[in-house]
Amino acid sequence: MQINRMTLREIHMSLLAPFQTSFGKTQHRRILLVTVECDGVTGWGEVTAGETPGYSPETTDTARHILTDFLWPAVKGKEFATAADVDALMSHVRGHNMAKAGLETAVWDAEAKQKNVPLWRLLGGTQREIPCGVSIGIQTDHDALIAKIDKELAAGYQRIKIKIAPGRDVAACEAVRARFPEIRLMVDANSAYSLDDLPLLRQLDHFHLMMIEQPLDWDDIYAHALLQREIETPVCLDECIHALHHARAAIELGACRIINVKLGRVGGHRWARAIHDLTAQNAIPVWCGGMLESGIGRAHNIAMSTLPNFRLPGDVSASRRYWSEDIIEPAVEVTPQGTIRVPDGPGIGFTPKLDLIERLTVSRTVFE
Question: Which end of the chain is more exposed for a tag (fewer CB within 10 A), N or C?
Fold first, then answer.
């Protein structure tokens, strides 16, 4: 294989409603799409970095810089056997996993199309339907939160995740559990707490949560190991896991009992698969987190989530939860049972809506 051309497109999309976490509120997305032409086949990827360095040090603008000035020069004209080999060509660039993943996932799509197989099969997936949950941002009050959960449960979603932050945590869980005593419930702190908050975090044990996601610093595996010894609720690591060796350290230190895998955060399908295999060997379940992706990123998440150790409902949900119109067809839909049926078409299995993408495009750069 050889990448003959790469195109970067920045598109602007607006969420149907603002999404608030402990580090900020998002409604308008600047999304960087990556297309590659490999031996006459076009593959699509998405950079999942946000507009600001709140969740990750990477942003839409840093990703464009790294792709333009470092990653494209590293891959252009180079021969490689499979998409899994692209990472080695980019390995001299430290970090910038989301930029790398945007390019790497596009090549995986292209390879699957060349071989006329679904991407999920090329990755080694086994699940024909994936279980789905939803992530609900911080709401103005408990009534609004309850109403949101009611709506998502009626749509069939199998798991509810609510965002929490200091002052918006225990009381929110109490309100949810009073109304929904039996649902599969988890909370996501996005690094909003410290070990000084241990008495408060212990209170969350009363609510029989599936997990608490990334409660402490985004790069502190050791502190999470100390916390997990002190609470009954399983800790799930998200922001801490950027590489295979981070996952290995977290498992050996006992820092978590669950890991969230995000393609952008770990550098693409190759490393997502490696982390999946390591966790499976250690009986640590994984699930797929979301980054407010367009349909391109969502399609890659679906393919990854078919791997057998993705045993918990992920944040891969229907297109209509986020967008008035998604940039793929068909749009991602969730069954009444709270699952997504995996497409059988070659590559990602969804068709980019080129006319809509063109209307949403604010910049385009072609590299040949």
Answer: C
Judge: domain 121-341, CATH 3.30.70.270. no
Catalytic-role residue among 25, 113, 262, 353: 262
* Per-chain mean pLDDT for the chain: 96
353: annotated active-site residue? no
Q: Is the pLDDT of residue 178 over 90?
A: yes
Averaged pLDDT for residues 215-228 = 98
Is-catalytic flag, 262? yes
Amino acid at 35: T
Q: Tokens representing 41?
A: 């086949």
Question: Is residue 276 pLDDT above 90, yes or no?
Answer: yes
pTM strictly above 0.85: yes
Q: How many CA atoms lie within 13 A of 201 on its CB side?
A: 27
Domain ranges of the chain: 3-116+353-367, 121-341
Which is catalytic among the residues 100, 113, 161, 163? 163
